[in-house]
Amino acid sequence: ARAEAKPAPEPVSPAPAAPGVAAPAPQTTAQPQAQPEPTPAAAGTAYITPLVRKLAAEKGVDLATVTGTGVGGRIRKQDVEAAAEKAAAEKAAAQAAPAAPAAPAKAAPVEVSPLRGTSEKMSRLRKVIAKRMRESLDTSAQLTSMVEVDVTRIATLRTRAKNAFQAAEGTKLTFLPFFVKAATEALKAHPKLNATIDGEQVVYHGAEHIGIAVDTPRGLLVPVIKDAGDLTIGGIAKKINDLAARTRDSKVTPDELSGSTFTITNTGSAGLLMDTPIINQPEVAILGVGAIVKRPAVVKDAEGNDTIGIRSMMYLSLTYDHRLVDGADAGRYLTAVKARLEEGAFEAELGL
């Protein structure tokens, strides 16, 4: 029998991929994922224990600003304490930081004088002053010597006495009466400063008539304290205050503006430390009193050692006529006035 031919087998095709299944990707090394930073817990997103709430209230911590480090961002006791410490540190740093400099104050506007940009004739008084000042410089050989004076004791004494003095005397106690008193006493021992040159004769005055330079709206005037050497501190103070007030009000008499033998000008009232005043002719000297200023000075302690103290200091300026008064004479006079003022022994006259 004839053999039957068998059909050839069909080629085998690869099996189709299962639908939805991707081919396997190449393998890669797994990288660690960064964990998100903890953020402040929003109100109501994480449970907060009553203990933590109480602690936050005690320390003044706003829980909405606190970053929780517990499970699920829960705020723990340690988180509240850390927030409180941070707030305290920031507050301390702010307090320790230097304050910002204040804005510079604006300068006060300058008051412009109505005389600015104008011209005027010299007043009669101004003409007289100008004539006498020029004559004084042309007549005498003038120079000025100065001495520094510690008036701390007088300053202390005046502070103690001024209220009682005003109640008893009816007038204020300024520093000027002390200077007039000391200057007048020294003139008695140094008559060359209380003299007048009359041709070839020198007249040494037997009394101390002290002129006091007074600044007035009309110009400089010099009323005179007659027989000042016979007056106490109280008497001198009354005379100064009375004469100065009436001179400024144009109520002083011509007789009260003449007859001085020595003049004192209180340039310190205008803030000047020292001056070189011009002699009031026919006198031979004038004493300038400077401003009293507190400043460090070398002083002796109770054991005689040098030390630094805050003292009330001022300058006396003596302009004198070198035709009669030598530098040594001026020096001895100033030294006597200085010693009297620094001694400050005026308690008896003030009733202390």
TrEMBL record:
Its cofactor is (R)-lipoate. Residues 18-43, 95-108 have a biased composition (Low complexity). Residues 47-84 form the Peripheral subunit-binding (PSBD) domain. Residues 1-43, 95-118 are annotated as: Disordered. One of its GO terms (cellular component) is cytoplasm. It holds the Pfam family E3_binding. SUPFAM superfamilies: CoA-dependent acyltransferases, Peripheral subunit-binding domain of 2-oxo acid dehydrogenase complex. The keyword Cytoplasm does not apply. PROSITE patterns: PSBD. Residues 8-17 have a biased composition (Pro residues). It comes from Georgenia thermotolerans. This is 2-oxoglutarate dehydrogenase, E2 component, dihydrolipoamide succinyltransferase. Belongs to the 2-oxoacid dehydrogenase family. The keyword Protease does not apply.
